[in-house]
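Researcher: Structure for this, please.
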Amino acid sequence: MSVLLDQVEHAGRAEAWDGLWDELCLEGETVVPASFAALPRLVALGQRSPEALSLAGSIMRGALQDHGADDLLLKSAEAVVRLRMLLDQHLKSRPDGYLHAFRDLLAADGQYHWSAVFGDFTDDFYHLRCPHCDVEVTIAIGDCGRYSAIRDWHAGDVERRDLKPASPEELVATGRWMYDTAVRDGQDRLARGLTYLFGRAECPRCASTFAIAAEYTAANLPSPGE
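Model: Predicted structure, token format:
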């Protein structure tokens, strides 16, 4: 791994990058202890190398895997702070791979649950349990509609109820940060979808309403290493 890092630092050889991806983030997903050991050097390269920035971001998206390197991740805290700054700067340039970089930034900020599922709201579905009656509710946000429903094996999404989006003024904390970033970078579909994701849904069974993002977060935000 050190040899490959030396090669990309001095020459940026394409085959060396291929080797690093295979060793540090296989198929863009699987991470190992060496992945987090390499983070500081990758982040240092990130200022001038989009490939290094992408690889570092992808490694962070794997932080919840059972990689056995929590100590190395903790030791890389300063590098992660720097990575967040570089990714935010990169998003301002509105790159072609905007969503990928956006998800990397979410992971670098510790929002692992969102980085794992976040889409472009073309065809996004979230499966939650109603906090009041415990029935499974499908949340759709995309070209197919913006609704809550009960998913039937044969009939598809039935008993649909329109979602109630949050107004930008109602968004707080992570939701507001995500929305403001999307607006800043001219990502209108993303920004609009976020108002629904951080809005409210009606349970088709018991007619109670609940905050979509809060229920998803409660069910899907473990600590790194779990």
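Researcher: Any notable elements?
Model: The mean pLDDT is 91. The two ends are 26 Å apart (CA to CA).
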